[in-house]
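Researcher: Here's the sequence for the chain we discussed earlier.
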Amino acid sequence: MKGDAADTVARCVKALVPGGTLYCSSYSAKFWEHRLAWFREQADKGLLGAIDEEKTRDGLIVCRDGFVARTFSEADLDALGRASGYPYRVEEVDESSVFLVIEKRR
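Model: Thanks. This is the structure I predict for it:
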């Protein structure tokens, strides 16, 4: 998500019809090394800027061309779900992805 994540989630929930479900996903912290390797491979092939190894850490991949990829932790997603005011859950799938699922009940 770019910009203010809480605002983005709030706007998405507002757009849901009653009974609708919002799914937001991010990478699991357990998948970090695989994800970083994939970004390094893309950088090596010239598909994106070189990785800034000093700034890349803790779920944040920073490229020297200004591109930034953020990972939302389970705690981040929990806070977004709580802030929505709707029933929600956060779940990890296959140690690779984490999902925030918000249900806009009728």
